[in-house]
Structure formats: structure tokens, C-alpha cells
Fold:
Amino acid sequence: MKLWKRLRKNAGAITVSLLVIGLPVNAYFNLNSGIEQNAKDIIELKSEFKHLKADLSRVENKVDKVEVKIDKVEDKVDKIENKIDKMYDLLLELKRSEN
Structure:
């Protein structure tokens, strides 16, 4: 009896977690459908998560590439900002020398 209670608790927690991350819950873990069907459902769910992890890895790689590009743009902006600051300082110096 304790095992069934633990199974129900885990099934409920997993179902809620699937809903939270936005995955469809296709009646996984209908504990009344028998052990073999539940085993098949768990194998299917593991397969879906394997694909999801692969998708997330690809997205993470793309994000990393974008972050590198953003860093390069930030560096260029910093260089331009430094040049503007130098130009401003030179203009101030020129104005002082005229007075």
C-alpha cells in the first residue's frame, strides 16, 4: 500500500511539473491502467525528455553565440565612447587655449 501511495505522489508531482514547464500531459501515470502501461508511459516520457534536453542544448549553444556577438558589439561601443570622450576633451582643451 505504501508503494502505491508513493507512486501516486510521484505521478502527481511529475504531472504538475510537466504542466508548469508547458508540456502537454497526455494522461501519463493513470495508475489504474496497469504496471505494463505505466512502464510504457514512463519510457515514452523519458524519450520526450531526452529530445527536450537536446533541443535545450541547441538553444543554449545559439544563445552562447549571440552573447559572444553582443560582447563584441559592446566592446566596439566602448571604443567609440572612448574616442568621443577624447574628442570632447580635445575640444575643451582647444577652447581653453583660445581664451
Notes: The mean pLDDT is 84.
